[in-house]
């Protein structure tokens, strides 16, 4: 079961309740990432905190309320602000500039919209450290300055996967590259998208090199009455680019697709050919098969696609590779399907097909 927190008020008040009510999950995140940073980058926690501090000025200029929310989490959980900042910069610390080998990746995201469906539906499996299943939080956030947000996140991290009351939703895939900047960490970019009232506003928050590292942001937006669309933006410190030109359908996994982005960054995913690309092709095959059968695509279609175990353990429903070093073992931690037309989502915690999807709204 995932812990659900209803948060409302100012950024600092929302953060405090996140930290206070979710203290156990915050501490679990700190434990996980202390090991992970050592495994990936051979650094201790004090150095991880120092690396996170380089983003402080950019965050302050970007949205000072995000710093206030992180300060609130730290106070509520009884930890240092720098600890929470390091969690929110965890992709920049662990994945950007990675120079190791044999990296096991995960996450498969997809979207269906017009002309295939009158409803805009996005969804993904989030594949990461198995221990982080104990850090998951479902946040229902109400802040007068932004739309209401429903988001699944890791304890202590203020931006992740979800949707808002304005019809904006986001899915996310990590990209492993050789460069980063001191700009805004990508998890704060995810939150900025969820703070947005429109697709235009969402994209304005992530374009032009504002993000400190590379990632895939699959963003959906639905205004109702069949008016919706989705875009897949690969963001980076050198700018962003849209990928995936198939009308009405998008799929992304964990390799860089944009030739423009690859002009400035090297894709360091050692398994892009035999894992990430195969998962992408399999997801496209499943979608195309459903379309060929002239079946109506609904939330249940996504649930079936995201449960696919073809080519396990490197399947869409990802299983842990026991042969990999412990810090590199990944599996599906949760699966989410978001119907932006209905402003509803379905969430399954864990990779087991025996676990049912729970409806969120």
From TrEMBL:
Among InterPro entries, the record links this protein to: C45_proenzyme-like, Peptidase_C45, Peptidase_C45_hydrolase
**Where does the Peptidase C45 hydrolase domain lie?**
120-351
What Pfam families does this protein map onto?
AAT (PF03417)
Q: What is this protein called?
A: Isopenicillin-N N-acyltransferase-like protein
Specify the taxonomic lineage.
Bacteria, Bacillati, Bacillota, Bacilli, Bacillales
């Amino acid at each position: 079961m995932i812990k659900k927190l209803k948060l409302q008020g100012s950024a600092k008040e929302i953060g405090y309740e996140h930290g206070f009510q979710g203290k156990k999950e915050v501490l679990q995140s700190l434990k996980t990432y202390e090991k992970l940073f050592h495994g990936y980058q051979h650094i201790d926690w004090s150095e991880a905190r120092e690396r996170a501090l380089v983003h402080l000025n950019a965050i302050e200029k970007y949205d000072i309320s995000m710093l206030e929310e992180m300060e609130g989490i730290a106070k509520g959980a009884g930890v240092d602000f720098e600890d929470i900042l390091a969690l929110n910069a965890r992709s920049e610390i662990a994945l950007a500039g990675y120079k190791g080998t044999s990296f096991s990746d995960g996450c498969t995201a997809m979207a269906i919209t017009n002309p295939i469906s009158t409803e805009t539906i996005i969804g993904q499996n989030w594949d990461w450290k198995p221990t982080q299943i104990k850090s998951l939080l479902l946040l229902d956030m109400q802040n007068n300055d932004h739309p209401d947000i429903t988001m699944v996140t890791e304890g202590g991290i203020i931006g992740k996967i979800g949707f808002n009351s304005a019809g904006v939703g986001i899915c996310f895939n990590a990209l492993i590259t050789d460069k980063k900047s001191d700009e805004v960490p990508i998890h704060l970019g995810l939150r900025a998208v969820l703070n947005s009232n429109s697709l235009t506003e969402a994209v304005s928050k992530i374009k032009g090199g504002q993000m400190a590292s590379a990632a895939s942001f699959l963003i959906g937006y639905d205004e109702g009455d069949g008016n919706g669309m989705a875009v897949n933006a690969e963001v980076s410190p050198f700018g962003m680019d849209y990928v995936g030109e198939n009308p009405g359908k998008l799929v992304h996994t964990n390799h860089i697709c944009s030739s423009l982005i690859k002009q400035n960054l090297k894709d360091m995913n050692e398994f892009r050919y035999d894992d990430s690309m195969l998962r992408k092709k399999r997801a496209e095959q499943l979608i195309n098969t459903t379309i060929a059968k002239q079946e109506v695509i609904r939330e249940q279609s996504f649930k079936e696609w995201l449960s696919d175990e073809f080519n396990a353990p490197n399947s869409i429903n990802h299983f842990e590779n026991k042969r990999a070093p412990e810090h590199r073992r990944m599996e599906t931690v949760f699966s989410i399907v978001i119907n932006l037309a209905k402003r509803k989502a379905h969430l399954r915690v864990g990779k087991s097909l025996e676990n049912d999807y729970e409806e969120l709204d």
